[in-house]
Input
Amino acid sequence: MFSEEELKQVEELKSHYPTNLSAVMGVLHMYQDKYGHISDEGITYVANLLEVPEENVLGVVTFYEMYHQHKTGKYKLQVCTNVSCMLRGSDMVLQTIKDKIGIGIGEMTDDGLFSVHEAECLGSCGTAPMMSVNKDYHENLTPETINELIDALKAKG
Output
């Protein structure tokens, strides 16, 4: 499933750790970046590639919110709803997104451009409310900044 170049990257990644188990997260990131989500087949593939128990890979995938076992939009909007963000307006963020693109948590737009996900904590409490778009953080959100961001992402396609 990985190309020869990607397999070289896996070997490089493994060389930084004392055991292959320590490389699971990095290889899962590679897999998800390539395929958009981590399927059951992907869990098996990563486990076999790293020669680690499949249960360990599944445990990582299901524990961390950064990994997705289902297809997501091109732009994954992860809205932090932990206490700091909740107290500072995560409900407004979710409502603004719903008003703008018509979807809520766990949904994807018909064109596959956006999906919305709830995140327990993204570690940016001092700049709440916030959300991530793929791997980029957007903080101190207002309805205006959220609408501008979505418009810019739509323009990019």
About this structure: The domain at 75-156 is CATH 3.40.30.10 (Glutaredoxin). The chain has a mean pLDDT of 95. The chain is about 50% helix and 10% strand.
